[in-house]
């Protein structure tokens, strides 16, 4: 084992948090701002990148490791929590919005997991948090979240967060499914991933979906979320009262009036 061996326990249902138990000198890394609580005796340290051996020990290696996180839209820094006490101590990390926390044992996934850029929550020290570029450039232009995804490598425990209900799907060799790009949470490294066009422009314009879906081909395992945060935020924003408009629920006629730029005043 190259990673620290950590024990954990999940609490809650729709607003979960994970409690990580650390032996003396064990360390867990986490995204900045995900801490919920910790026992006395745990030391916090802000680090560049993920602190794994894969990013090198020199200053350039650390800068490159941190730079990978900037590409995915994450912070330059992560936080390391180390148990410096004599006995066991616990530190807990909370999910940022309603959903589930998925424990991922990388040793059971050939040491590699690909996930959405905002899905990573925490991991045992030694897990490398990098970037995964898709082979086809079209995925970058049309896939939204699909082109640049996070890559978790190592043989330790990682914790990934997703919104709503989580569905785990195991694909056989050659089996293919199409998923909304925002609903894709994670996949094993052996999944073939691409972007497929949704036929029919009317479907794209009036069907409420995007022009492209993620096409996932087995063998491998994928995790799908029912409520991406972007979709939740969009619905909340659309339900907010417009400036100068009524704060109550409008009628159908009122909604149509708004679509065509009508003025209620």
Would you summarize the structure shown here?
By secondary structure, this protein is α+β, with helices and mostly antiparallel strands. The protein is 17% helix and 41% strand.
Describe the fold and architecture.
With 265 residues, the protein is α+β, with helices and mostly antiparallel strands. Helices cover 17% and strands 41% of the residues. It has one domain: Mitochondrial biogenesis AIM24 (Double-stranded beta-helix, 4-Layer Sandwich). It contains five helices and 19 strands. A six-stranded antiparallel β-sheet has the order 5-6-3-10-13-8.
Oligomer: single chain
CATH topology: Double-stranded beta-helix
Structure summary, number of beta strands: 19
* CATH class placement: Alpha Beta
How much strand content do the residues show?
A: 35-45%
Architecture (CATH level 2) name: 4-Layer Sandwich
Q: Name the strands of the widest sheet in spatial order.
A: 5-6-3-10-13-8
H and E order: EEEEEHEEEEEEHEEEEEEHEEHH
Mean pLDDT: 78
Report the structural category.
alpha+beta
Please summarize the sheet with the most strands. Answer: 6 strands, antiparallel
Radius of gyration: 21 Å
Overall 3D geometry?
A: globular
Helical residue percent? 10-25%
Instruction: Estimate nothing, just give the exact number of structural domains.
Output: 1
First-last Cα distance? 68 Å
Poorly predicted runs: 137-146
Determine the number of helices (DSSP H or I, runs of at least 4 residues): 5
CATH superfamily, by name, is Mitochondrial biogenesis AIM24
